[in-house]
């Protein structure tokens, strides 16, 4: 019977903190904050906010980064998917892009900075082998004023993300047969894909695209590493006010967070309007009967772009590993002159604590998420899915669409009021908000496509519903459950704001440390935390594939599906 | 091995036993799929034929207790004098065989059989011996520790039937169980199934497209439209 309440409990845990947090942000924005002894409604915070020098530029850069990242990553993903569909390169691209999904944004950002900075790998190679100058050029590449480095860092993560989302949408769009029909009608591969597959795939990837848009507009951690500083993007500016010792700035921060929320809402609405416009102009093109595109050119571009992404991410990883073991590494040497374990040795005690904090949080949040998600899905099997539950599916995207800073700021206020700030409990709840949607989205498909007759067989053999779940369904879906768990751990490990604002002082993590080290001067320590950030999720994904293979090594029917 | 090891109840003659469908009606979305009364004696088979979508499988789901809530059902189903409809699927003791063997891929052949064996048969050794004996009867000596995925289609079908029989059902439902086997296997597996159903005195409902199945089963026939 308790199962019947699973969807409600899950939704409450996922949406509750977001709504409560938004209220906690909204009230101080209008001057109401009893914890600081202010309870009269006023617009003072807003006047201060709009009087901030550089605010306009912060907003423009945030919008530019959000839209540019989203449009570019969509275009690249469509190009790659259209050009490689049904070719042998397809599997290769999928296999090389998917590990990038596991690497936290911050680690990619740190690695990218090590590659493209004026003293980074690229310029070292230029100076050593291609006759470049002997000193690093005086250029502002990382933290540039237009957020180009920030866009690049986001693109490296969003392209693999959207590509895998498109992949999982292809079967439902009946892509292979649609392509066969289009080809038999004389359409060249890319033209065919754009005209018959994309229109059916798009509705399924709309929410993830909007999540990418919202994320690009409101990202904090990557922006702290790669983004502009004078002035910073809006969300970073809000965090700066929040961290200011002058508590009065919290009101301005709250107003800023409300503005951030409004910006994201406006951006999403504009995207949806633009969709309609594109559809209107695309329909005549779809029906015009032209059967070819510049196939060769587009295909070369798509392979080129995938290669660039893969090369950049792998070089970034090499760079952070090298820096964490580097002893002397002067410009323009492309490799360190000497290697040492000193960085790892000196940092080992602190790193072990932070790693333990991160792992404990990730495992708790993921375990709770898995239990809740399995309970929801099993409830659906036993009692059916009500219409309101089916309609509530888009609620899964709420934590991914609402800017993190907008509700975590208010959540911090509430936690302080409840004296729950800096507690492990609050930390796990905050992480759960982000872990739950991903665990649900990754487990729901395999769970629902599981052959219902296995359950009928188990019941008709006299097994109880619980035994049918524990002894038949869960072992058969072990691979999917562990994969969902690995995604949950990766998501939790990557959380910056949800750790920093909720329990950053008492429960610092490898991610909060990496971000704070990025503004310090020690590249080696920064590199070390970026390496840890990469290794933990990768280990999780490897374990999720290896463990079922070992457990079921004598069961051919349990092979990787 | 004697019959008792397979099913202690099988050799006991039960007076008034059998499966009775009493004014069973199944409707979905206001359309009546099935309206049927029938009695199937122990060891006899009723064959249900009809085009796809005629509700053949819904009838089996109704008897097994696994029909989704969207179906509106009425009537009674009596098995050996017991009304099944108030019972949960796992309490009904109605075995079902699908066109796919649906052996659990994470368990060995013996594990699949032991899953079905009632908990009252205690002790690891006895349970294993029971499974081995059952396999021997079906010509599958030495298969107890095998991975089901390494068996041939015909062998898997036989293991699936053994699994149902070991759960000591009181009735058997067959949902086109022969349609995926090749012609040569089909005849031999079909006679094996009916022989076992008769030997265990199981009232059986079979759903099929194939007139040859109905012929082999003998017994009454119902045509749905």
The fraction of residues assigned to DSSP E strands of chain A is under 5%
Strand-residue fraction of chain B? 15-25%
Overall pLDDT of chain B: 87
Q: Based on CA inertia axes, which overall geometry of chain A fits?
A: globular
Largest sheet of chain A: none
Helicity of chain A, as a percent range: over 70%
Find the count of extended strands of chain A (DSSP E, 2+ residues): 0
By helix and strand content of chain B, what is the structural category? alpha/beta
User: Biggest interface and its residues per chain?
Assistant: A-B, 26 and 35 residues
Total of helices of chain B: 6
- What is the H/E string of chain B? EEEHEEEHHHEHEHE
> Would you identify the regions of chain A where 5 or more consecutive residues have pLDDT less than 50?
none
Q: Can you tell me the residue ranges of chain B where pLDDT is under 50 for at least 5 consecutive residues?
A: 1-15
How do the strands line up in the largest sheet of chain B?
A: 6-7-8-3-9
Roughly how many Å is the radius of gyration of chain B? Answer: 17 Å
| Oligomeric category | heterodimer
Query: By helix and strand content of chain A, what is the structural category?
Result: mainly alpha
Describe this structure in words.
- The complex is a heterodimer of chains A (561) and B (225).
- By secondary structure, chain A is mainly α.
- Chain A contains 24 helices and no strands.
- Chain A has helices spanning 6-29, 44-51, 55-84, 88-102, 105-116, 121-129, 148-169, 175-184, 189-218, 221-226, 234-243, 249-287, 295-325, 342-383, 387-391, 398-401, 404-417, 424-449, 452-460, 465-476, 478-494, 497-503, 510-519, 523-551.
- The longest helix of chain A is centred in the middle third of the chain and has 42 residues, at 342-383.
- The two termini of chain A are 33 Å apart.
- In chain A, 48% of the residues are buried.
- With 225 residues, chain B is an alpha/beta fold.
- Chain B has six helices and nine strands; from the N terminus they run E-E-E-H-E-E-E-H-H-H-E-H-E-H-E.
- In chain B, helix 2 (109-116) packs parallel to helix 4 and helix 4 packs parallel to helix 5 (183-199).
- The model of chain B is unreliable at 1-15 (pLDDT under 50).
- The chains are: A mainly alpha (561), B alpha/beta (225).
- The interface between A and B is medium-sized, with 26 and 35 residues.
């Amino acid at each position: 019977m308790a199962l019947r309440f699973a969807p409600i409990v899950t939704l409450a845990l996922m949406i509750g903190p977001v709504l409560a947090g938004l209220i906690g942000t909204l009230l101080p924005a209008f001057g109401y904050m009893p914890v600081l002894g202010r309870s009269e409604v006023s617009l003072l915070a807003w006047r201060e906010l709009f009087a901030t020098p550089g605010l306009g530029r912060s907003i423009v850069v945030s919008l530019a980064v959000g839209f540019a990242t989203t449009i570019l990553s969509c275009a690249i993903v469509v190009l790659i998917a259209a050009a490689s569909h049904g070719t042998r390169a397809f599997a290769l691209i999928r296999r090389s892009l998917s590990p990038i999904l596991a690497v936290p944004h911050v680690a990619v950002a740190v690695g990218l900075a090590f590659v493209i900075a004026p003293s980074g790998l690229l310029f070292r190679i230029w100076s050593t082998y291609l006759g470049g100058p002997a000193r690093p050029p005086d250029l502002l590449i990382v933290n540039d004023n237009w957020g180009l480095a920030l866009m690049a860092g986001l693109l490296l993560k969003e392209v693999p993300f959207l590509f895998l989302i498109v992949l999982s949408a292809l079967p439902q769009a009946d892509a292979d047969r649609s392509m066969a029909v289009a080809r038999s009608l004389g359409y060249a591969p890319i033209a065919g894909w754009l005209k018959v597959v994309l229109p059916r795939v798009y509705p399924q990837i709309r929410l993830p695209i909007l999540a990418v848009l919202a994320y690009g507009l409101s990202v904090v951690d990557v922006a702290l590493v790669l983004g502009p500083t004078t002035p910073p993007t809006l969300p970073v500016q809000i965090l700066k006010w929040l961290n200011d010792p002058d508590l009065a700035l919290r009101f301005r921060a709250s107003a800023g967070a409300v503005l951030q929320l409004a910006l994201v809402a406006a951006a999403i609405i504009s995207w949806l309007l633009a969709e309609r416009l594109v559809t209107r102009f695309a329909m005549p093109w779809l029906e015009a009967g032209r059967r070819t595109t510049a196939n060769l050119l587009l295909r070369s571009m798509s392979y080129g772009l995938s290669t660039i992404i893969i090369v950049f991410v792998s070089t970034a990883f090499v760079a952070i590993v090298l820096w964490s073991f580097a002893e002397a590494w002067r410009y323009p040497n492309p490799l360190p002159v000497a290697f040492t374990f000193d960085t790892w040795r000196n940092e080992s005690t602190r790193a072990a604590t932070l790693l333990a904090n991160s792992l404990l949080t990730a495992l708790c949040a993921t375990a709770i998420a898995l239990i809740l998600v399995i309970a929801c899905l099993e409830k659906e099997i036993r009692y059916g899915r009500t219409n309101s539950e089916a309609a509530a599916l888009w609620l899964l995207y709420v934590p991914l669409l609402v800017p993190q800073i907008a509700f975590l700021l208010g959540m911090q206020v509430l936690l302080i009021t409840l004296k729950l700030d800096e507690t492990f409990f609050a930390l796990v709840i905050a992480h759960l908000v982000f872990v739950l949607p991903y665990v649900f989205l990754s487990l729901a498909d395999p769970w629902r496509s599981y052959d219902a007759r296995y359950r009928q067989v188990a019941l008709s053999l006299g097994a109880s519903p619980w035994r049918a779940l524990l002894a038949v369904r869960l072992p058969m879906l072990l691979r999917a459950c562990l994969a969902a768990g690995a995604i949950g751990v990766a998501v939790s490990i990557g959380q910056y704001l949800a750790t920093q604002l909720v329990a950053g002082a008492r429960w610092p993590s490898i991610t909060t440390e990496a971000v704070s080290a990025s503004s310090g001067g020690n590249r080696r320590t920064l590199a070390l935390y970026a390496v840890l950030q990469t290794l933990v999720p990768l280990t999780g994904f490897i374990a999720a594939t290896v463990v079922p293979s070992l457990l079921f090594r004598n069961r051919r029917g349990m092979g990787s599906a | 091995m004697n019959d008792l090891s397979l099913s202690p109840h099988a050799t006991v003659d039960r007076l008034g036993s059998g499966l009775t469908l009493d004014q069973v009606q199944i409707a979905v979305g206001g359309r009546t799929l099935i309206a049927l009364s029938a009695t199937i004696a122990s060891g006899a088979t009723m064959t249900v034929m009809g085009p796809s979508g005629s509700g053949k499988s819904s009838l089996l789901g109704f008897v097994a207790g696994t029909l989704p809530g969207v179906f509106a059902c009425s009537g009674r189903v009596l098995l050996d004098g017991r009304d099944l409809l108030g019972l949960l699927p796992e309490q009904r003791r109605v075995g079902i065989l699908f066109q796919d063997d649906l052996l659990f891929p994470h368990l060995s052949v013996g594990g699949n059989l032991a899953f079905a064996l009632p908990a009252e048969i205690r002790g690891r050794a006895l349970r294993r011996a029971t499974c081995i004996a059952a396999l021997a009867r079906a010509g599958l000596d030495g298969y107890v520790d095998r991975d089901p995925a390494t068996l041939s289609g015909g062998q898997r079908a036989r293991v699936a039937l053994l699994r149902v029989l070991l759960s000591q059902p009181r009735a058997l439902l067959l949902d086109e169980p022969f349609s995926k086997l090749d012609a040569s296997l089909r005849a031999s597996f079909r006679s094996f199934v009916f022989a076992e159903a008769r030997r265990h005195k199981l009232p059986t409902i079979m759903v099929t497209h194939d007139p040859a199945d109905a012929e082999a089963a003998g017994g009454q026939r119902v045509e749905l439209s």
